[in-house]
What we know:
Elements: E1 6-16, E2 20-30, E3 34-38, H1 45-52, E4 60-65, E5 68-69, H2 75-82, E6 85-88, H3 100-111, H4 116-129, H5 145-157, E7 163-167, H6 175-192, E8 195-199, H7 203-209, E9 212-217, E10 220-225, H8 227-231, H9 236-242
Parallel strand pairs: 3-8, 3-9, 6-7, 7-8
Antiparallel strand pairs: 1-2, 1-4, 4-5, 9-10
Amino acid sequence: xxxxxxVLSCRDLAVGYDRPVLAHIDLEVRxxxxxxxxxxxxxxxxxxxxxxxxxxxxxxxxxxxLGESMYGLAGDERGxxxxxxxTAFQQDALFxxxxxxxxxxxxxxxxxxxxxxxxxxxxxxxxxxxGLAGLEHRRPAQLSGGQRKRAALARASILDPELMFCDEPSxxxxxxxxxxxxxxxxxxxxxxxITLVVVTHELASIRAIADRAVMFADGELRASGTIDExxxxxxxxxxxxxxxxxxxxxxxxxxxxxxx
Length: 260
């Protein structure tokens, strides 16, 4: 593996607030892979994601994104780096006063000088790719939970980023809708060449999309490997995560049976 193959690197990273939630994290993500970040509630995976995408400075260590130091860059230079990435947040973060089309167009209008007709066509094409064709003029409140997740993915990917981060993209969705989100992420990788880092606790999603998984527990990186490798782990926490049977309403494939 060459340096060009590594698109995300964490070196001896500690993240948290007044004290570390995770410490001594060494992690690399390779170009073209889908890497899942796993762990129970409070394990620190979402805090780690905030640090990786530039929202929460580390307590120690370094983050390198696409070969550049996230926290070693000045504001303008960090903004340039972040334009090569995309993020879909857990709560979708769509602007309720804007149409879906305007939400998806926002990065294009703020960060490029493309003419409006081109922006409009790009937005229509990306909404069609995520299964939202014809819904351009609706507002977020007029969409289902699954549709809002798809709109958030469209916005996060509209600049064709090299690296995309997704925080719980299928959480709270019924199995059929969640499987559709998984299929969309796989299509992004296949059609657009996007590398994906996905924070999730959904077993079905992990098994459907992840090339590799990294699990956090008790303030440390507990395991890293393929899904088969982690499923056979001798660590009781790791093994237990992959062999849950009755998880408060989980269906046999690992999904929670929740409404869209």
